[in-house]
Amino acid sequence: MIVSPYPSFVRALLAEHPAEDRADKMQLYAFLIGCWDMEGVVHRDDGTENRNRGSIHAGWVLEGRALQDVWIFPGSFYGTTLRVYDPSLDAWHILWSDPLKQLYLRQLGRARGADIVQEGKVGDGIFTRWSFVERTSHSFHWLGERSADGATWQLQAEFFARRTSA
Questions:
Q1: What tens digit of pLDDT does each residue of 80-102 get?
Q2: What is the CATH number of the domain that holds 119?
Q3: Overall domain count for the chain
Q4: What's the N-to-C CA distance of the chain in angstroms?
Q5: Is 10 exposed, middle or buried (0-12, 13-18, 19+ CB in 10 A)?
Q6: Sequence-ordered list of residues with C-beta below 8 angstroms from that of 13, at least 6 positions apart, any chain
C-alpha cells in the first residue's frame, strides 16, 4: 500500500459509505467497491489486439456522493471513472479520464434489467456503450462497444473481472 504524502487530501476524497440521502440509489454501482483482477482484450483500430491482465480499484468518494474507480490495463489504458448519481435524471453521470491516452468520455448509466448500461457520444459523433453484465458478488463481465449509427455495434473491449478484496 502506498502511503500518501497528502493524508488530508486522501481523507477529504475518500468516504466509508454512500451519502445517506441517496444511499438506496447509490447501490447500483456498490458492487464495484473493492479490488478486482481482470483478464481481457482490447481490439485496436489497426486490427491488432491487446490481450492482458489488469486490475480495478474502487471506493466511495466526495462524502459518499460519488464512486471512483481506477482501471489499469497495461498496454492500453490507465484511467479513472467518476460515477455520480443525479436524482433529477435518476441516472449516473459517468466521467472517464485516461491521461495517458488523453481520452475523456462522458456517458449516462442506468440499470437495464440485471445489467448496467452506460451510453454516450464522443466528439466525432461515435456512440459509445459500456455494459456490466453477468454480475455476481465476486465477478462481472464488462463490454465496451461503439457505433457510427447507434444501431450497429462493434466490440472494442471485453473484460472478465474477479474480486480480490472488498
A1: 999 999 999 999 999 999 998 89
A2: 2.40.128.20
A3: 1
A4: 15
A5: exposed
A6: 61, 62, 68
